[in-house]
Model the fold of this input.
Amino acid sequence: MQFIKSFFKIILIMSVGFFFVSCSGPDNVVPTETRDDNIEDLVTDDLIRTAQFAGVGRYTVNGAIELFHDSDTDQYSLLFTDFLLMENGPDLHVYLSEGDVPVNFLDLGELKSTNGIIRYDFDGSSFDPAFDHVLIWCQRFSVNFGQGVLVDP
Done:
């Protein structure tokens, strides 16, 4: 009986350890160089939604989020300013999502950097007005690192 209890303790400790290191550790693939994407052409676009990043769980994410729309070309731009992700991780993507769990979502691609001014452009045909969250999502382990809830400015 003692063996079984010890075995389950070991399994529990290993499971908890895996959870805490699953999206961090030596496999950090997101570049850490500060990005400074061009934003000058956004001054003529309409600012349609804004948000502030907040970390989820043990992750720390800060920065402002702005969603712009160019009605002439039906192009959207998602902009992160003063962005800072404190814990790096593998396979981190940026999602526009309906809610804080990506069921109905648009994958804008890999996170370009852990800090700076970061811009993602996408076509209006892929935008769903129901998208009300921006997520920093670890695809490999289905972990939400941080999010912002989009609201009207």
The two ends are 61 Å apart (CA to CA). Residues 10-21 have pLDDT under 50 and may be disordered. The beta strands are 35-36, 46-52, 54-55, 61-70, 75-85, 92-97, 105-110, 115-123, 133-138, 143-149.
